[in-house]
């Protein structure tokens, strides 16, 4: 029996799968154990050359997985063609398993909470940071889907290197909540514990009333007077760095 047409497989799975848009997203997803039932490229030679250069560890898997399809067929599968002309679909990890990992104690690295984030690019950048620092996970509250293709693209496929779920404030994982707010105590006087829940407010309106009510501590990043606030993803970067530089990050 001949192998199924990858485009048929794609169309069958697209509605329920995670879109990996570009070579780097696919590379990261494979490295961190994603199940990838279909991967296509408009230029297999170029994609495998990139694998030789940047991803020797998953090169054999890529060689087995990647099917070349005509350029127009590739373009029809993605919202915005990627310079590497690679796209794949991955199985979305189980929510039940994700919730179990978020709830598990003791925890060796914080959970990052984005409270009602609005910008998909910011959410992707935060997931990439969480993956880099070995954070336990990223939780969002509100309506933004943290598995939206634009977030996965911004996160470079690193959703598979951490746990990513959407929850309500009432469902947040256990652990002391350190909420980041310019009006809080100077973070430099605070040691963030490994089981911390680090919460950040929305780009437009900051922390919600519900999140403030759950917070055990309000902490501020150093900032010169007259500057109102930092960008959300930048704030997460500084906070995770502070955690790692003050004793955390055994895993990194
Ligand atoms: C762009 S800011 C939100 C600005 C918003 N206009 C406000 O009223 O807070 C997004 C989030 O980044 C974090 N943040 C930004 N600058 C900060 C600072 N200097 N100290 C602590 N957190 C900060 C906070 O969690 C904030 O809610």
UniProtKB/TrEMBL annotation:
Keyword Transcription: no
One function term, GO molecular function aspect: RNA methyltransferase activity
Residues of the tRNA/rRNA methyltransferase SpoU type domain: 111-241
Pfam families found in the cross-reference section: SpoU_methylase
Keyword field: Methyltransferase, Transferase
SUPFAM superfamilies named among the record's database cross-references: alpha/beta knot
RNA-binding listed as a keyword: no
BP GO annotations: methylation; RNA processing
InterPro entries associated with the record: Alpha/beta_knot_MTases, rRNA_Methyltransferase, SpoU_MeTrfase, tRNA_m1G_MTases_N
Name this protein carries in UniProt: rRNA methyltransferase
Source organism of the structure: Streptomyces resistomycificus
Taxonomic path: Bacteria, Bacillati, Actinomycetota, Actinomycetes, Kitasatosporales
